[in-house]
Amino acid sequence: MSGKVFSLALLLFMLQLERGDHLRSPHPDIPDKDLFWGADQYDFAVVLPATALECFWHFAHHGEHFYLNFMVQWVTGVANDRHLSVTVNSPKGLLLSKVDDSTGQIGFDAEETGFYQMCFSNFHNRFGSMQVFMSFGVYYDGQVDADRQKEEEKKKKEETNKQLNDTLTTIEDSSVKVQGLVFHMWRHYNFGRMRRGADYYLLLSNGNYVRYWSAAQSIVIILAGYLQLFFLKRLFHTKTTTETDKPRC
């Protein structure tokens, strides 16, 4: 009897996982407008081996703006290719955006609440790995639903009727605006840092290329000179003669 109960509980748990409700709505009892509306961002680098696929998930609420910036910093291996295939899927598995390049930017407004999937594929390189720097996250520009917007407008009218010179509201709005501008400035700075990192690795790669080829060419020149000298000496090689051993015609 206990085995049947355990099997039934396991079956119900698997059905719940297949529905994916825990991914799309982590707080089913709380309405979406009452959740925390903030900014959440990450930036780091990963190394993708040859023909590897790496996926990441990030949570976004309906109405937030989702962004993804990426750049290939260096590539190793034989017949390497700097192109990277990047796809972004919705919580329901629908393809939202796809980029196949060494660098790219993806941005869109989240139409549904849930975990958005970002996949990075290195299938162009079958014998080499690459390092990818990525920066992704969400931010909220202040868009609200119609009911909440009406309530806020009503409260603002009441406040303006009571206090015409409310300096605290002006300071709060200015601080929010400054915070948003600083956040966007940080995004552009992060993208510039990715570009500088890619240039640095490219400079190191070119330096190693010039160094190795210079050493190889020096070895070839020395070896060619030695062989020329060896064959020239063989042309002028003379055998010493004695009374018993004389050169013959």
From TrEMBL:
Keywords attached to this entry: Coiled coil, Endoplasmic reticulum, Membrane, Signal, Transmembrane, Transmembrane helix
Lineage, broadest ranks: Eukaryota, Metazoa, Chordata, Craniata, Vertebrata
Membrane spanning residue stretches: 212-232
GOLD domain location: 53-144
The species this protein was found in: Chanos chanos
Transmembrane helix among keywords: yes
Ranges in a coiled coil: 143-174
Topology class, membrane: Single-pass type I membrane protein
Family: Belongs to the EMP24/GP25L family.
Localization in the cell: Endoplasmic reticulum membrane; Endoplasmic reticulum-Golgi intermediate compartment membrane; Golgi apparatus, cis-Golgi network membrane; Membrane
Top-rank taxon: Eukaryota
A cellular component term, taken from the record's GO annotations: endoplasmic reticulum membrane
Protein name per Swiss-Prot or TrEMBL: Transmembrane emp24 domain-containing protein 6
UniProt xrefs under InterPro entries: Emp24-like (IPR015720), GOLD_dom (IPR009038), GOLD_dom_sf (IPR036598)
First and last residue of the signal peptide: 1-20
